[in-house]
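Appendix B, Record 12. Input sequence as logged:
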Amino acid sequence: MQWTLVIPLKALARAKSRLSDTAGDVLRPGLALAFAQDTVAASLACAAVRDVAVVTDDSLAGRELASLGARIVPDEPAGGLNAALAHAAAVVRSRSPESAVAALNADLPALRHTELERVLDAAAEFPRAFLADAAAIGTTLLAAAPGRELLPSFGTASRARHRASGAAELDLEAVDSVRQDVDTGDDLRAALALGVGARTAAAAARLPIPGRPVGTAGPPAP
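Logged structural output:
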């Protein structure tokens, strides 16, 4: 099954506020953009992904991600994360009604396309499915098969909400790069330990990160 991914990205000036203790206001927007660039690049390299739609109103992010091959969908509802995802999924389905659609976080800088392919192949076995984040509280991916509504319910404790909504939880090992989103300094250190993409590595190199793992300057292995 081929998937269209919808990836939400808020305005860079407001993105990743919980990283303020690690990256100040000057560096944080560039770090958020780097996360999204590495996420989109890895997604487009995945054999199970047909295309990627990024829902954002940030003009810089839109230009940079479009240059990688993503389609940019304006956040017309301007009603928060779940409204943006539902809108993007509707735009995708208006053009391709039979598309399989999956929402993916924009902050997966260690994402490996081979691990993403394993997750999407597993999700194809269910009408709706999701993958919990590394903390086992949130969600990094929510998938809906053709003809099924996405019904996103991201945010705090979204793992429980997605399970309650009837989505199947994917129980997969060795897909850490798809689970490791980055909200805090500890999350960033965990992503660096996995091995991040080139853009995040360059952005993170400017940060004074205590306990930075050795050997994290290069992109993740395929």
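Residues 214-219 have pLDDT under 50 and may be disordered.
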